[in-house]
Structure formats: C-alpha cells, structure tokens
Amino acid sequence: MSVKLGIVGVGVMGADHARTIASQVAGASIRGIYDANAERAKQIADEVGATGVASDPLHLIGDPQVDAVLIASPDSTHKELTLACIMARKPVLCEKPLASTSQECLELIDAEMAAGVRLVQVGYMRRFDPSYAAMKAQLAAGRLGKPLLFHCVHRNVAAPPWFDGGMAIANSAVHEFDIVRWMLAGDLTAISVFRPGEVSTQTPGAPVFLVLDGPGGTLATIEVFNDAAYGYDVRGELVCEKGTIELQRPVHALVNHALSQGASYPLDWRPRFQDAYRLQAQGWIDSIRSGRPTGASAWDGYTATLVAEAGLRSLGSGRREEISTTPMPGLYG
Length: 333
Ligand code: ISE
Fold this sequence. Notes:
single chain; alpha/beta; Rossmann fold; Dihydrodipicolinate Reductase, domain 2; 2 domains; seven-stranded mixed β-sheet; six-stranded parallel β-sheet; 15 strands; 22% strand; binds (2R,3S,4s,5R,6S)-2,3,4,5,6-pentahydroxycyclohexanone; NAD(P)-bd_dom_sf
C-alpha cells in the first residue's frame, strides 16, 4: 500500500520535504498540499506531482483520501494542526518544535494517550543523521567506556530577521537538547546559560553557551552562535572514559587551490542534513506501513521544549535552573 500524504506548509522546509518525498522516498505519494500562500501551494504541488491543493489545512487533514500528514507550517500552528491529526487518528510528522510551550505539548500527549496509539513523530531529524548514528553505534560498542561529556557546537551563517534573543535556545538549541538526550539515553536535569561579551551590545544572533546536567552525572556543553557568518557548522564530540568520538560532517571532496586545501560549508542546515531528512521521511513512511513508531515521539518533543523553557529561565535569571520532568507514560516506553 502506498501512503497518501497531505503536506501542510510548503515554505522552505515543507517544500524541501515534498521534493524529498516525491523523488527519494518509497511507498508514499503526495495527495494534497496546503499553504497560506495558495499560489505557492499550487507551484509546489505541480512541481512534485501532488494530486490537489487544499484551501484549508483542516480539510486536508480530514480528507478521507489522506492517510497521514506532514506539518511544516509556522511554529505557532503546530499544536492545533497536530491535535487535529490525532483527533482524525492520522499519523503525523510535525516539524520541530512540537508546540510553543511544554503545557501545549502535554495536551497533545494527553490526546495521543486517549487515542491509545502513537500517531505523532516530531521532526528532530538528527536522530537519522548517519554521523550521529555512527557516534551512537561507537558508544554502544562499549570499548570507549561510559560517556562523560558531550560537547556540541551549533553555528549558523546569520540569524533570520524574526529571531529574538531567546530563539538561539527555543529554535536552535532544541536540536541539541534532543540529540544529547538520545545519545546519552536519559533526561537532562538542569541547565545554565551564559552569554559571552557585553550583553548591552548583543544582537539576537550573538553566541550563547549552555551547560547541562545529563543522566548518570554526565555533562553537556552547547555553543549556539546564529551569526557565525562563515557557514552552517554543527559539531559534536563525545568524551568517554577511554577515548572520544568526534562527529564528522559529510565532506565528499577537498579542493586544493592557491596554496591551500579545504571544503566548503553549506549556507544552511538543509545540505548538511539532507541524508537525515531523507532517512527520517523514509523511516516515517515505513513506520506507518509497519505500525512500529520511529524517531522522536511527542514525549521527546515535550522534553525538548521543557529544557528550552528552563534555558530561557536561566537566560533571564543568570542562574542554574532545574528541569523537572513528570514520569514518562507507558505509551512512550
Ligand atoms: C532552524 O529552525 C533549524 O531547525 C535548523 O536545523 C537549525 O540549525 C537552525 O538554527 C534553526 O533556526
């Protein structure tokens, strides 16, 4: 059976998802597309061979011809649209963040528990990235012993114009919160946020430095620098008892020229994580067909938002803030 998809939102990310699904994912077809910009919806629908364009996202979600829904509309719409998918009992892949607040995430979790089945996957795509997967496999192999520290770096070329001072945490660092929890296989329990330099002159893209307490006494450090200018660059090094594991970005060619050797950086995250997006989409479709959920769950989406909220509190208070999770419901075990 081919899974017939509805895609809500075809801006930069949604259009990329649509193209990836249409050209590189097996077992799915795009039935309908909705975007607030109807012309854009039509253009992307034509490009990817979608059967139709919807005039309302809720109609698309309710369409009996649509088996599952991918949500890539603005962050503020994620909660209501994901809820509509749960109520319609349709599997949904929602871009991060799952919702704007941890309370809203909990409402989605309640709805999913009432449905009694996992329907929600959150687009924390790094879990599917071959570099992070290789790091996890090396850790699991055991010869490096236990993990002690995870150093993470997240640099963008420039913060988008709509970024405010907290977005480095709520929009960017959430990826690290999810991947650190996934890598260390446990919850983050406290966070301290530091801002280097003179705070009075800082822009929303200025660096922030985060220190987190992880499971079993581990620590994670995260630098987010949204205005790093030189390129999109995500780094990670896991320090273990008997060695370290370094993340390698995919570099397929080194150029030797004018007395130097080098590789270029992408402008944004899409080329860096293109394999992750493709594998995430394929994993999602396979999970719908097999009934075995994969990727980040609604619970994972909730914890990333919960850590971000504590981070924002720490940014305001200048103190270390505790992160208190409630016990994970059995549905997510
Ligand atoms: C953006 O929303 C993403 O999800 C990217 O992966 C991340 O690198 C960027 O910092 C975010 O703004």
